[in-house]
Amino acid sequence: MRHHDLVVIGAGSGNAVMDDSFADLDVAIVEERWFGGTCLNSGCIPSKMLAYTAQVARTVQEAGTYDVDAELRAVRWRQVRDRVFERLDAQRDSGRRARVQQDSVTVYEGRARFTGAKSLRIDRADGTVDITASQIVIAAGGRPAIPGPVAESGLPYETSDTVMRIDAPPRRLAILGGGYIAAELAEVFAAAGSSVTVVEKEERLLGPQDETVAERFTELVRSRYDLRLGRELTALGGSPGALRLTLDDGSTVEADMLLVAVGRVPNSDRLNLEAAGVATHDDGRVRVDRYQRTTADGVFALGDICSPVPLKHVANREAEVVAHNLRRPDDLVTADHDVVPAAVFTQPQIASVGATEQDCRDRGLDYRVGTAGYGDVAYGWAMEDTTGFCKVLAEPGTGRLLGAHVMGAEASTLIQPLVLAMTLGIDATTLAKSPYWIHPALTEVVENALLDLDL
């Protein structure tokens, strides 16, 4: 049985743990599926490359708004798909080769599971191999959740793992779920020519977003998609290519393809964690302390398998923390999850950081709201934007920012000054009045929202 100084389970953000400071150690990495993890292969990056293409298509369709005569003839799906994945697959293969060729690293391709404390069995195509390690990092990520009626039907369905690589967009696409994955991929396939129906159990799309964002986004896309809100799937029938979704009110949805996007679950149930003494939360996430240590000595975890905020930029930060703490056990650092921004790359974009207004009410906070519309600033006039807005929440008296939410073009960029202010403790008045805000840039909408606060 071979022993390693360090074993990392998962070659997504886990691959970032092993920097040059580990060159003197005997290190191994175990990957069941693909180097680069979800983000590179079936998540953040391909979906945003496709979303940008959808944005270009929608710009052409709406060119008349700006007195430009233009016609969208087609989105060449197969060429778009190949452009995206030829690039990303090359990145994945390059990352794998680099590790295979590294003298201090052993690559095991297969599924790892614990057989005891710091002991692993790896199921590979050519059999099993047992190894031990002085330290282990669990970075095995998560996977799409599949509801019972879909799993039990025996009929084909797609998830975010598969749908972006299909050969052609379906004529009729049903999407089960109304979160950020559903919203982004609905826009992608609508731009590619699919007729989209969204089935969501909540009354609004993007429910975890600030209530104003969720309400306005839902109303904006009613004209684009067939929305079945407040409805749950009770049965999936029909045949491949001719599916029939039966909903809890007795209504049905006919579709050529079903995309399941109801959320994700951590892969902890595949690792036999009990054998190693690694505890989990009720939702399956691995329990870690503020230093990313699990309940088992010498075992760390990072990313979607443990994080309360399953985002790539959070996983990367946690990988930095784990790398430091593995090498410097007497000088531990922490991963801070207090101010974590996120974005949804729909049309329009959505970005958020901190508390929502409903959070503030539920927590009994005293707060003020400041808002500004894209249409209230000069660049918004240029864009003919009547729906985009920025909303900020702050504590009266101190001006401490509690949360911020942007819906509109480049929201994922506009949110960043507010992220910096919340991270560095800059109050709303200081942020609004101390720096210059470029005129007539779109950032003036952020400035105006801050100035709208009644502190």
Describe this structure in words.
- The protein has 455 residues and is α/β, with parallel strands linked by helices.
- It is 29% helix and 25% strand.
- It has 13 helices and 21 strands.
- The chain has helices at 37-42, 44-61, 77-100, 148-153, 180-191, 211-221, 312-327, 357-362, 378-383, 411-414, 416-424, 428-433, 444-451; strands at residues 2-9, 27-31, 105-109, 111-116, 119-124, 127-138, 142-144, 172-176, 195-200, 226-229, 233-239, 242-247, 252-255, 257-260, 264-266, 299-301, 342-344, 350-354, 368-373, 389-394, 401-407.
- Strands 1, 2, 3, 4, 5, 6 and 16 form a seven-stranded mixed sheet that branches. It has a five-stranded antiparallel sheet with strand order 17-18-21-20-19.
- A hairpin with a 2-residue loop joins β5 (119-124) and β6 (127-138).
- α2 (44-61) runs antiparallel to α3 (77-100) and α2 (44-61) packs across α5.
Précis, in short:
The protein has 455 residues and is α/β, with parallel strands linked by helices. It is 29% helix and 25% strand.
Q: What tags apply to this protein structure?
A:
alpha/beta, 7-stranded mixed beta sheet, globular, 455 residues
**Biggest beta-sheet profile:** 7 strands, mixed
Oligomer: single chain
pLDDT under 50 segments (min length 5)? none
- Per DSSP, what share of the residues sits in E-state strands of 2 or more residues? 25-35%
Mean of pLDDT: 97
* Total beta strand runs: 21
